[in-house]
Amino acid sequence: MISDEGVDRSGELAALDEELTTCRACPRLVEWREEVAHTKRAAFREQTYWGRPVPGFGPASARIGIVGLAPAAHGANRTGRIFTGDRSGDWLFASLHRVGLANQAHAVSADDGLQLTDVRIMSAVRCAPPANKPTPAERDRCVPWMLQELGLLSRLSVIVVLGGFAWTALLGALARAKTPVPRPRPGFGHGAEVTLPDGRQLIGCYHVSQQNTFTGRLTESMLDGVFTRAKHLADTRNGPA
What we know:
This protein has about 240 residues and is α/β, with parallel strands linked by helices. Helices cover about 40% and strands about 10% of the residues. It is globular, with a radius of gyration of 17 Å.
């Protein structure tokens, strides 16, 4: 599943991103994402919504991956860039900026100048789902996209997984690709760490949803701690970027 370390897969990753944006495999998600893009939210009525599957974001040379749940209806489904234009993204990118993995703290549009250092962000499901709840079948249909993307990240050594849904999706995807996964499958938890037989390391993190950030279940220091740990583990395996 992992390509040869050090090989530049940027062109292949860009081609995969482009192919992904044409996917119509899940009728319920296609209908929802396009309906939201048509009706819009009043605050964004002058904007043209993306309304398609949302590809990953970040360089092919990334040593750290981040896996989220799915695009937000009026966030990435509007802007076309994962975690961009919503409160969850505000938290995520601010943390990445604080720990030195992003050049700025805010993400408002796909052309706002944001650049990630050593990080690639993707989601378990690539289309905005109704009520932010994809079905297991929709999750499983998206698995091939995740596997192809992970396979092109030749230096990836650490994956931060945001929330239990993405944790289950990722472990299921790895098992589907016949990548050895510890048995019994490790459960999700904030700060949980799992070392895969191939040496890659997973770190669990509460999702940056308002349900967690507004209630204090996830704090800035907790989130920063996860990404600081991810940087340390990546440096330990690969040396500084």
